[in-house]
Amino acid sequence: MTASPDTPSVGGPAQVRGPARGTRLRRAAARATPLFLLAPALALLAWLMVFPAADAVRLAFTDWDGFSDPKWIGLDNFKDLLSDDRFTQALTHNLIIIAVLPIWIAVPYSLAWGLHRKIPGWRFFRFAFFLPVVLSPVVIGVYYGMFLDPNGPFNGLLRAIGLGGLAREWTNEPGIALPVVIVIVIWWTLGIGVLIFLSALSNLDGELEDAARVDGASRWQIQRHVIFWQMRPVIQFWAIIIVILSFTSFFPLIYTLTEGGPGFATATVDFYLYQEAFDNGNLGYASAVAVALVVVIGSVSGLAVALLRGRRKAIR
Amino acid sequence: MSTQTVAGRARWAPGSAARIGRRGRRVAVWLIFATLAASTIYPLFFLLSTALRTSEDYRRAPGGLPHELTFDNVQRAFSEMDIGRLALNSLLVVVPAVLLLTVLSCLAAYALVHFEFPLRRTTLAIVAALMALPPAAIVIPIFKAILDVNLLNNRLGLILAYAALQLPFSIFLLASFMRAVPGELLKAAMLDGAGPLRTLWSVVLPLVRPGLLTLMTLNFLFLWNEFLYSLVLLQREPERTMMVGIGQFQGHFDQSLGIVSAGLMMSMIPPLLIFFFFQRDLARGLTTGALK
Lengths: 316, 292
Description:
The structure holds two protein chains of two kinds.
Chain A: H1 13-21, H2 24-31, H3 33-59, E1 62-63, E2 71-72, H4 76-82, H5 85-99, H6 101-116, H7 122-130, H8 137-147, H9 153-160, H10 177-202, H11 206-214, H12 219-248, H13 251-257, H14 269-279, H15 283-315
Antiparallel strand pairs in A: 1-2
Helix pairs in contact in A: 1-2, 6-10, 7-10, 8-13, 10-12, 11-12, 12-15, 14-15
Chain B: H1 3-9, H2 20-51, H3 55-60, H4 72-79, H5 83-114, H6 120-131, H7 139-148, H8 155-178, H9 183-191, H10 196-207, H11 209-225, H12 228-233, H13 242-252, H14 257-267, H15 269-277, H16 279-288
């Protein structure tokens, strides 16, 4: 975010008091005012955000158990990372999650569209879709653990409607557990996406749409060329949010729902990072995982944005 | 936008759909919406009902209504899970963190929006960049920074970490509200002899009160639900917070679904209150970033 040039800003108290009243000392003090106002926030950010971000990179080159001093071991962690099956597996799971990005965008977009078009009961739906957003991942994880239990309500429902053959151990079957986790996360974050798309849709320029209609554009053409085109920045924003979410927000859910299992089938990179660091005490190695994670997030977000931008050019 | 346009968009009006095929599709779409809504409402019903029934009753029909109500699980959540203590522990971390965040972000946003100084834009850019830094990626160095000052397993450590993690977002959000305060008002106040802090307190803050409320609500919600940092920075039982306490309890005692549900229901009280009473503020806070 950058301040727009027309931001109203007072020239600072120095200007306001005027040279007649203030001594040089007072003026200097007044000029320092923003510094004093910012100091506490900047100090905290420097100590617990900026310095750690740099330290993460340093720690990635060390062997550290959390008690003794970190020991410098050069590139060893990164070499291990390349031949680490578990890391590869976790990363693969994350990439599978990223592959469903289009669904993760399309579902909230379509829902927001329905709400925007005032589907009967839209106020209630808007309220309902947003509900999971305020719930903790622990609540979600534990709830779905019970709901999807082999003897839980979901299998009960399937049996009741004659689909008992589909009933299974949803969170404990390789090949099914990961898709289940992905569906839960999409469900959980749906509300934010709907909210963002809905407020963007209501800010759209209605005249463009009307003009297109007058020009005889079909509904699909309007959707694609007029609305989607205007929505593009918001869709990009949501795509970046999801990329970050998909790499860093699965941990609490997986911790309470599947603990990475069955086997390692639902472990994601952030879960593996936690496990290596705080269960196995390999904090240096886990830092290398963190560095790899940030690099992957950066490239994937860049790619997602580039793809969305490319699509805009195609439309033109 | 004129009301005409809105009325023109109301394609759901009955009668406008003459063709049956279209109506069928519309019903199908509506059913999808309804199913989804049911899936978001049902957890509340399910957890409440499981919390208020015996485990035998639960096994008989897990998804249905309780035969008879019992408060046994709620009582046991207090005695066995120590849910009261967990709630207090969460509040002892989250409330100070929210207050600290409010003070720090007010001062910082005020300086960044209403004062001109060297590197102002650079500072804004750094704050924005930090907002994109995923908390999970820096949990280890933050753990180390807190460990280095001997604040591990000390509530103050988690409070400071929470404040740092939420600070970029808080500054960003408040700045977007403060930008709406006209600079002339501040000039006038300062001409009347009010110092910068006095101006902030009696001119700016009253005007951004909705923004402050949004900020505090969102921060409370995020931090109340936060799991990873709480798990890592408060590892001993006496300080353990609500989400971690429940998460670990359910891992150890599989048989007590009722107790876990009772605990979950209680952990959901603050978020649900916020949801019901401050939904508009939440929505505004969450969409501010997207629409800039």
